[in-house]
Amino acid sequence: MSQSTGREARTASSSALLSVHGVGKSFGPTIALSDVSFDLAAGESLAIIGENGAGKSTLMKVLSGVHRPDRGRMELLGEPFEPRAPADGLRRGVAMIYQELSLAPEMSVVDNILLGQERSRWGFLRRSEQRRIARDALASLGHADLDLNRPVGSLPMGWQQLVEIARCLAAEARVLIFDEPTSSLTKQDTERLFLAIDTLRKRGVAILYISHFLEEVRRVTDRYLILRDGAQVASGELDGIDDPGIIRAMVGRDIDDFFPTVEHQRGEPLVSLSGLSGVNKPHEVDLTLHRGEIVGVAGLVGAGRTELLRCLYGLDQVRSGEIRIAAEPVAGRSARSRVRQGFGMVSEDRKTEGLAQELSILENCTMSYLRPFAKWGWLRAGQRRVAAERLAREFHVKAYSVKQPVSELSGGNQQKVALARLANQQAEIFLLDEPTRGIDVGTKAEIYRWMGQWVAEGKVVLVVSSYLPELMAVCDRIAVMARGRVLEVRPTEQWSEHELMELAISSS
Q1: 24, 160, 359, 446: least CB-packed within 10 angstroms?
Q2: Residue range of the domain that includes 506
């Protein structure tokens, strides 16, 4: 399938800044990328769209020099482009801004911008020249007033991202690749990023942009290229295709319901919080969660939503207040005791906290609850593997084996492994922190359906999300948090998105 216009169908144009011709990449028997071709001119912006595991990250790593392609060729300004490492790609003018920023938090803004490209003479750093280069790079983004001596780790996330972009500009990057750049940004920081991209394009920098948010794609880019199972299945001008058409090309089918629901009925109270306070946040939270309901938590970044879940799960210390399960006070303070009591949590940070990246799917699915596989103090490896394979099938994890490290999986498949772990724990109370962040629309629909199935079985789901349409579509009740406090809880039909945001902002 292809959606091309006359303007987009240009190939190997002499005016192209970057040209990609029939590029492919395999890992053993797995074809990760197959016959991808496109041109990108100076000042243009191209969206790379696809489900998790479609090949987007592999393509970006080929372009930035992390992987070398097995077939095809690339050209930069009409010359062969064959980067052997990211530093090589950056020297040629192609830089990548990853979803997880690669900054040194304890170092200053200027040292981060010039990291790896320091200016020196006779073994001494030329500080004045480095400051001038850093200042010019920030000025080109409209932020010349940023304190160059400030440690990067003390900056808000949006400002840290600008520092990362400035580092690429200091290296005179001609092509910038953005991989899910807004997944951890506030609305204000997101708009700041978009303005920076507008400025870059006016300066002739070409942009490759990966995002699962189609509204972002339309704001930032002119053209699109859709990957599915490693193959290029559609491309064209964004003006020529609607969102359902994009989604149909991504998943290979129509998704009739973006927010599928499963019939469920609210039952008796299961979890009760009374005056719950953490060391820093939350503050004096009163909340009751019933069997058979999905409760959403809305609020701005820093409102205390994550801290609430962490206190419930035993990851953060509870300073005062009480947690009861079925009217009985919870025993123990550790996450291990919470697992035994039926709690299960999916962290918003898959990379450093939610999963053990270097361990296998099998280990990640089962290691938090090994009791079903233990006998006389020994683990029954065969039973454990059978269980992991069953979970991988049930949660549609795309992998060649349950022995595959989760670090090799796409973000969506990693999230499925995290959810499978909760199923193995036989969790009754699901604490989900931004469970669909950075996830494609097909996987999101699957997660919503699983949430519905869990509450239909009489379980509880408490979900934190910054995406208000998601909360409005899947939750039975929504609580709004600000400054660590739960301000108000209402049935979802009694909220509007405007009211949710207005309460969160006015109380912050």
Answers
A1: 359
A2: 255-342+428-508
User: What pLDDT score does 10 carry?
Assistant: 37
Residue given tokens 């003006």 in the structure block: 239
Structural domains counted in the chain = 2
Question: In the structure encoding, which two tokens stand for residue 436, read together?
Answer: 């669909």
First-to-last alpha carbon distance for the chain, in angstroms, is 48
Cα–Cα distances in Å, from 460 out to 11, 266, 304?
Answer: 53, 10, 20
Cβ–Cβ contacts within 10 Å for residue 321, how many?
17
Whole-number Å distance between alpha carbons of 80 and 98: 25
* The pLDDT of residue 399: 86
Q: Which residues pair with 461 in a beta bridge?
A: 294, 430
Q: What pTM was estimated for this model as a whole?
A: 0.68
Instruction: Lay out the sheet containing 460-464: strands in order across.
Output: 343-346, 429-433, 460-464, 293-298, 477-482, 485-491
Contact 258, 449 (CB under 8 A): no
CATH of the domain at 497: 3.40.50.300
Query: How does pLDDT run across 205-249, given as a tens digit for each residue?
Result: 999 999 888 888 999 999 999 998 889 999 999 999 988 888 888
Q: Are 500 and 298 in contact (CB under 8 A)?
A: yes
- pLDDT by residue (tens digit) across 161-176? 788 888 888 878 889 8
Q: Match 């990291």 to its residue by tokens.
A: 115
| 370 pLDDT above the threshold of 60 | yes
Q: What is the CA radius of gyration of the chain?
A: 24
Please provide the average confidence, as pLDDT, over all residues in the chain.
86
Question: Quick check: is 83 in a domain?
Answer: no
Answer yes or no: is 58 within a domain: no
Q: Between these two residues, 37 and 440, which has the higher pLDDT value?
A: 37
Residues 6 or more apart in contact with residue 81 via CB below 8 angstroms? 18, 74, 75, 92, 94
Give yes or no for a contact between 469 and 384, defined as CB atoms under 8 angstroms apart.
no
Contact by Cβ (8 Å): 445, 259? yes
**Are residue 415 and residue 432 in the same domain, yes or no?**
no
Please give the C-alpha separations between residue 34 and each of 27, 86, 455, in angstroms, as whole numbers.
Answer: 12, 22, 41
The first and second tokens of residue 270, run together, are 């299961």
279 with 317, same domain: the answer is yes
The percent of the chain in helix, strand and coil, each rounded to the nearest 5, is: 35, 25, 40
How many residues would you count in the chain?
508
